[in-house]
Amino acid sequence: MYQLHSNVTKQSIVNKQYQRVHARVASAGPSRKLLGARRTCATVVNSAFGTRSTSACGAARPRVSSSSSSRSLKQQHAWSPLRPGPKPAGLHIAASVHVRGRRVIICAALAGVADSPTGTDSSSSSSSELLSQRVKGNEQLITGQLSNGLRYVLQPNRTPPQRFEAHLEVHAGSVDEREHEQGVAHLVEHVTFLGSKRRESLLGTGARANAYTDFHHTVFHVHAPLTNCITGTPMLPQVLEALAEIAFVPQFLPMRIEKERKAVLAEAQMMNTIEYRIDCQLLTHLHAENNLGCRFPIGKTEQVKAWEHAIVQHFWAKWYFPGNVTLYIVGDLDRPTEEVIRLIEASFGGFPAGAIVTYFVWHFCSCSVTCSCSCSCHLQASLQV
After folding, report:
1. Catalytic-role residue among 189, 302, 308, 338
2. Is the dihedral of CA 213, 185, 275, 285 positive or negative?
3. pLDDT tens-digit series, residues 217-268
4. In angstroms, rounded to a whole number, what is the distance separating the alpha carbons of residues 150 and 147?
C-alpha cells in the first residue's frame, strides 16, 4: 500500500478554507510487476475552494473534485475499497488515480446504489427507481435493417457543416481467429481495403478513408464532404459504393496479399516496443480465461509469414456477410433520411443474406502436413457456392 501526502504550503495552512483529502492507491501484486509503472496517489480536492496542490518540482498533481460545496467533507472525497476506514453509506464515488509515465489514469465508479437509503433526500429517487429508469434515446437516431440482414444507423448532425462520415463495422476481430489464424483479421482488413479500386477513386475528392482491426470488430471508415470537389457530384453514393466493394467484393490478388503481408509484418515490428509487450502480458493475466488474453490484433509473425492465400480468403468468407455488418452514417446530410435509406438499399441490398461464399472444404492427405512427400500435402481450398 502506497500513500503520498502533498506538500502543504504556508498559505494553505493559514487559510482555513483549503481542505485536503488524501486518496490512496494500492499496488495490486502482479499488475505492479507487469506495468512497471510508478503508482502514485493524487490529492482529492474540494472544488468549491479551487485548491490545487503541487509537488516539489512545481508540477500539478492529478485531482478528483466534488461539484458540491454543501456536503460534508466526508461525503466529498472519493472512497476506495482498499482504503482503511468505514465504507461511506449510500451513494458515493470510489476512485483511484495512477500515474504511468506521462499518462494519468483516473478510475472512478458510482457505488452504493443498491444499498442507498430511501427517503433520505427528497431530490433523489430510491435505488430501485434509479435502477429501473431507462436511458432516453436520441430522437434523431434512425436505425433499420435490410432484408439481407445488414443493419444501418443514421444520425443527422450539422457540425461540422457540409461533411459526413460513414463507418462500416464488420463484427469480427482477432478474438474470432482460430489457433492457426492469429493476425489474419488484420491482414484481411489490409487486403480488402487497399485492394479496392473504388476506394482509390476517393483520393483527391476531399475525402479521407482508413481502417482498423480490434479484438471484436473491423471498421472501414470514410470522412467526406457532401460534394466531390473534382466532379461536383454528391459524395454519399460514391462512398457507399466504395464501402460495399471493400467488404463484399474484394479482389484477393496474389500480388496484393503478398504486398500487404509485408506491410503487416513491418507494422508488427514497429509495434514491438517494451510498452506493447507489457500490455500484452497484462492482458494475458487479466483475460486468461478467454481469447482477449491470447488473440492480439497484430497476430503472430511466424504465422503471418507462412499462410497460404486460401487461409486469408477463408476468414473473409466466414465473417464478411451482410448479417454480420453494421453501417453508421453521421453528418450534415444533404437529403432526407428516406433517400439515404434508398441509397443504402441500392448499394448493399443486392448481396445475399448469408456468407458470400458458403463454406470451404479443406483437403489434406493422409500423411502429416509437414511431410516432404510428393503428394499434395499443402492446404488446398475448393469453393462450394
Report:
1. 189
2. positive
3. 999 999 999 999 999 999 999 999 999 999 999 999 999 999 999 999 999 9
4. 7
Band (pLDDT 50/70/90 cuts) for residue 81 is low
- Residue 6 identity: S
Can you tell me whether residue 172 is helix, strand or coil?
Answer: coil
- 143-147-150-153 Cα dihedral, nearest 10 degrees: -10
One-letter amino acid for residue 248 of the chain: F
C-alpha 234/C-alpha 289 separation (Å) is 49
Nearest to 231 by CA among 257, 258, 206, 214: 206
| Catalytic residue chosen out of the listed positions 169, 181, 241, 260 | 260
Task: Kindly list the strands in the beta sheet with 151-156, ordered across the sheet, starting from the edge strand earlier in the chain.
Answer: 142-145, 151-156, 325-331, 163-170, 218-225, 208-213
Residue 200, all three cell numbers: 482509390
Residue 111, SS3? strand
Is 260 considered catalytic here?
A: yes
Count helices and strands in the chain by DSSP H and E runs: 12, 13
End-to-end CA distance of the chain: 62
Nearby residues of 56 by Cβ (< 8 Å), 6 or more positions away: 7
Beta strands in 268-373 (DSSP E): 325-331, 359-363
